[in-house]
């Protein structure tokens, strides 16, 4: 296998800078670990691996000789008596995942965590500094993650396929079994822990027949093996469950959440699971959504459903992560009153306060479905008494499927910085999901993973940046997109300033480029039904999915305003609702999400909607051309495997961008009859 492709951002390239080496080598001669646990062991192994490969020198491992070691790692409780340098007050205030890295008197480095997991994070922090060739002479770092749950959702099926996966097959399952080849899972755990991920659900939220049995003794021993691996990297595992399990695998006639036999069945089931996995994280649940079973069948609501499971998991400290992706997926396109965007809020807002405290509602960032541009879901801020977490999609279902380059950190950053005004100005999404605004007991961020068994994990090598960036951003949403991008490039491709600049601009512009050549002005969709790649303007127009653009000869867009439209804008707090509601103030990029306008409507830029469509679509293709040119300047400067992987995909991207440009432009030219002012080629 190609090591560089496989190693992602943990390249641990040999340090060539002589001066740097001379100055710092002595600091990495020996390590002592105080304490003993599987996680500390992982921390030590990683540190050892990193040092060995960057310094070309195997550090000596001491058992106890603290005075002689150049690096001392351990857990605060077991270590603090020995080091007066540790500020006890400061340490007491920190949480279980916090750590410090400190240079102490005799030039040794102290890496102390509040827990063994935190020690592992400290080690990764130090290795990152080394990979970035940062100055390390006088370190005094205190770090805590801002979000509590930092999670990934795998959409992996046991036949080895991955729903919306674009990077090969599952690393977890093959031939309807859990894989015996656990090495890759271990490396995945290493990557995830290096960016601070602490939870993972390991099967698709669409839980099919076989996957329903993951919570039976047929598969639990194998699930427990996977849990062991992740546990030693500080990551808890969760399973997606089938709400109808009591019927499917329990021989009951019903899955009614208020039925005593059903309640008992889940209680016993929880006990059984925790016998295998004592620190099992809990369940992720997609219920009454896209034909998956749920409480509606029994005339019960989502709180009844979630609380059933929460009661069962409670004795063991388990969580129920209940998804809010609930809408009518059998809509009649003739029906203009139903609005899919309103559904999640309509279903869950009335239930605020009715969920048990070990339930978390998982809400997608937008009200529709991970489109290239959507407003932020109005459920953020609307739930004051219910634990909430945010769901992003790292896998590029609607954003180019890892053929097209689309770096998503800037999008996620916008979502986290969005002000909901739920408690007045400054009620940002990031302070809702970090629990601080409403004092949630549990909260955080999760995302659908983009990895598979491709050699480079993510299909497109540059899509590794999305996984890395996701982890870094949710650890600390205050990090800038630029800083995260640069970190990733330097760790992945090294220190050459030219390489860094080229890739940095490619990544940072890619989201806007993708937006330029696909569906315009926040309208979304217009993709091929089913697989969702490539243009198909009317692909979903007369479908059951509630995803329409309503283009006719006069205009385009969905009227979601309060007086004349579906009223969706009303789900926001003031002043957001007024901003979206009015044509004068609605931001251009979301115009067609909120309003139906004539093609001649002037945007804030002064350009008409139709001319904007033409301009952006021609521009998008030119921009992809430039991406190809930029990348070609790196030939010979980076290894051939990664170079050609990206080059091949950029060529596919260009084809796709042209297909989008020509279909979108032609479609709207034919609908509107309005010519391009610049008289470019439209078919
Ligand atoms: O984005 C849509 C996808 C489905 C997915 C669903 C969901 C797992 O097209 O493939 O199902 O959302 O989030 O549940």
From TrEMBL:
Any single Gene Ontology cellular-component annotation: extracellular region
Keyword Hydrolase included in the entry's annotation: yes
Keyword Hydrolase in annotation: yes
Domain Glycosyl hydrolase family 67 catalytic: 130-457
Family annotation (InterPro entries): A-glucoronidase_C_sf, GH, Glyco_hydro_67_aGlcAse, Glyco_hydro_67_aGlcAse_N, Glyco_hydro_67_C, Glyco_hydro_67_cat, Hex-like_dom2
A GO MF term: alpha-glucuronidase activity
Gene3D superfamilies: Alpha-glucuronidase, C-terminal domain, Chitobiase/beta-hexosaminidase domain 2-like, Glycosidases
Occurrences of domain Alpha glucuronidase N-terminal (ranges): 8-126
Active site, renumbered: 290 (proton donor), 369 (proton acceptor), 397 (proton acceptor)
Keyword terms, alphabetized: Carbohydrate metabolism, Glycosidase, Hydrolase, Polysaccharide degradation, Xylan degradation
GO biological process, one term: glucuronoxylan catabolic process
Entry EC number(s): 3.2.1.131
Pfam family for this entry, one: Glyco_hydro_67C
Catalytic reaction annotation: Hydrolysis of (1->2)-alpha-D-(4-O-methyl)glucuronosyl links in the main chain of hardwood xylans
Span of domain Glycosyl hydrolase family 67 C-terminal: 458-680
Family: Belongs to the glycosyl hydrolase 67 family.
Assembly notes: Homodimer.
PANTHER family: ALPHA-GLUCURONIDASE A (PTHR39207:SF1)
Protein name: Xylan alpha-1,2-glucuronidase
Organism field: Lederbergia citri
């Amino acid at each position: 296998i190609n090591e560089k492709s496989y190693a992602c951002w943990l390249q641990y390239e040999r340090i060539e800078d002589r001066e740097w080496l001379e100055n710092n080598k002595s600091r990495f001669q020996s390590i002592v670990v105080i304490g003993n646990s599987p996680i500390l062991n992982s921390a030590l192994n990683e540190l050892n691996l990193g040092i060995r490969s960057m310094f070309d020198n195997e550090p000596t491992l001491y058992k106890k000789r603290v005075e002689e070691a150049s690096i001392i790692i351990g857990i605060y409780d077991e270590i603090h008596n020995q080091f007066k340098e540790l500020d006890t007050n400061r340490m007491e205030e920190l949480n279980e995942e916090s750590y410090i890295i400190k240079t102490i008197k005799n030039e040794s480095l102290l890496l102390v965590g509040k827990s063994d997991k935190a020690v592992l994070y400290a080690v990764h922090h130090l290795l990152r500094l080394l990979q970035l060739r940062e100055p390390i002479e006088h370190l005094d770092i205190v770090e805590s993650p801002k979000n509590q749950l930092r999670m990934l959702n795998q959409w992996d099926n046991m036949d080895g396929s991955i729903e919306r996966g674009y990077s090969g097959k599952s690393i977890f399952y093959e031939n309807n079994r859990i894989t015996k080849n656990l090495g890759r899972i271990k490396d995945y755990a290493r990557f995830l822990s290096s960016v601070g991920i602490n939870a993972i659900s390991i099967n698709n939220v669409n839980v099919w027949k076989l996957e329903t049995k993951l919570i039976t003794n047929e598969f639990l021993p194998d699930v427990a093996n996977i849990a062991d691996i992740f546990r030693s990297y500080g990551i808890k595992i969760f399973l997606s469950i089938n709400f109808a399990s009591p019927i499917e695998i329990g021989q009951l006639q019903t899955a009614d959440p208020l039925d005593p036999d059903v309640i008992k069945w889940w209680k016993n089931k929880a006990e059984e699971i925790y016998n295998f996995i004592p620190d099992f994280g809990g369940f992720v649940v997609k219920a009454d959504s896209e034909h998956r079973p749920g409480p509606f069948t029994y005339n019960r609501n989502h709180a009844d459903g979630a609380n059933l499971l929460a009661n069962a998991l409670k004795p063991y400290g388990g969580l129920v992560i209940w998804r809010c992706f609930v809408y009518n997926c059998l809509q009649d396109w003739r029906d203009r009153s139903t609005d899919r965007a309103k559904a999640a809020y309509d279903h869950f807002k009335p239930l605020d306060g009715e969920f048990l405290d070990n339930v978390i509602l998982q809400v997608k960032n937008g009200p529709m479905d991970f489109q290239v541009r959507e407003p932020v879901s109005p459920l953020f801020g609307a739930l004051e008494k219910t634990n909430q977490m945010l769901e992003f999609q790292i896998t590029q279902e609607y954003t180019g499927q890892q053929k097209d380059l689309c770096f998503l950190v800037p999008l996620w950053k916008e979502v986290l910085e969005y002000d909901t005004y739920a408690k007045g100005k400054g009620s940002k999404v990031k302070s809702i999901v970090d629990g601080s605004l409403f004092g949630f007991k549990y909260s955080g961020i999760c995302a659908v993973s983009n990895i598979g068994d491709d050699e480079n994990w993510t299909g497109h090598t540059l899509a590794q940046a999305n996984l890395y960036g996701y982890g870094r951003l949710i650890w600390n949403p205050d990090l800038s997109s630029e800083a995260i991008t640069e970190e990733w490039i330097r760790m992945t491709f090294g220190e050459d300033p030219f390489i860094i600049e080229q890739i940095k601009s490619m990544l940072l512009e890619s989201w806007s480029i993708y937006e330029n050549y696909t569906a315009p002005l926040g309208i979304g969709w217009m993709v091929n039904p089913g697989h969702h790649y490539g243009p198909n303007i009317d692909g979903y127009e007369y479908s059951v999915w509630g995803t329409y653009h309503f283009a006719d000869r006069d205009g385009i867009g969905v009227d979601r305003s309060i007086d004349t439209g579906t009223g969706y804008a009303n789900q926001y707090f003031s002043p957001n609702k007024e901003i979206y509601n009015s044509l004068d103030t609605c931001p251009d990029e979301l115009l067609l999400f909120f309003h139906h306008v004539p093609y001649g409507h002037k945007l804030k830029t002064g350009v008409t909607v139709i001319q904007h469509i033409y301009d952006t679509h021609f521009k998008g293709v030119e921009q992809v051309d430039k991406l190809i040119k930029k990348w070609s300047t790196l030939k010979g400067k980076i290894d051939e495997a990664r170079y050609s992987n990206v080059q091949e995909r950029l060529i596919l991207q260009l084809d796709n961008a042209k297909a989008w440009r020509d279909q979108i432009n032609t479609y709207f030219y034919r609908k509107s009859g309005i010519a391009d002012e610049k008289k470019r080629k439209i078919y």
